[in-house]
Write a structure and sequence with these properties.
This protein is mainly α. 64% of the residues lie in helices and 0% in strands. It has helices spanning 3-26, 37-46, 48-59.
Length: 72
């Protein structure tokens, strides 16, 4: 693997991790699913790649679409 490709992969992983941690910290507690915020942060600290992906897909409730009720 070329050094440029390795650097690009590390930068992508670092950006994903930083995004997930900042997003977790800034997300209101009412929108967090499955675990409390501290639990998500611990998971992201122990498993940076998997934790960030899990937070993105499982940890945060999406905002309701305008015009739809939240009970749907």
């Amino acid at each position: 693997m070329t050094p440029v490709l390795e650097c690009a992969i590390y930068l992508i992983v670092a950006a994903l991790y930083v995004y997930a941690v900042v997003d977790c910290v800034r997300t209101p507690a009412a929108r967090v699913r499955m675990l409390p915020k501290t639990g998500w942060l611990v998971i992201m600290a122990l498993m940076p790649i998997l934790g960030a992906i899990a937070w993105r897909n499982l940890g945060k409730r999406s905002l309701p679409v305008e015009g739809q009720s939240s009970t749907d």
